[in-house]
Specification:
By secondary structure, this protein is an alpha+beta fold. It contains 3 helices and 8 strands, in the order H-H-E-E-H-E-E-E-E-E-E.
Length: about 140
Amino acid sequence: MSDSHKELEEGNRLQLDFQKLRKIASTDQAVVPVVVQCAETEQVLIVAYANRRALDESQRRGIAVFWSTSRNELWVKGASSGDTLKLEEIRVNCEQNSLLYRVRRSGDGSCHTRRADGRTRSGCYYRRLHPEGRLENMEP
């Protein structure tokens, strides 16, 4: 992992990618955002994207499947880490332009990053933003 990527995922400096949606649009891939929420705790774990194929695969397999906007390919969550997300239900928002996957984790976590002790993080929202712009890691 490059130093800049490590700083992005582990650092305490805000570096929001306000160009993300523009980058996704430039790929010409038709996707919708997917909010992934733990069905037990209601914690938001991930925000990802799905195209029609990913949605169909999620329903067929009963686990969360996404479209990787950075790799431009189907992303079966947990295929390499073992941290799959079992679908409890899929919800659609009022404007039908985003999805909510309510899931149960079958591993330690759902984020692709790891804590200092090497364990997978439970979710991607592990840092708090302070008013002055500093990020604080909320993990034990």
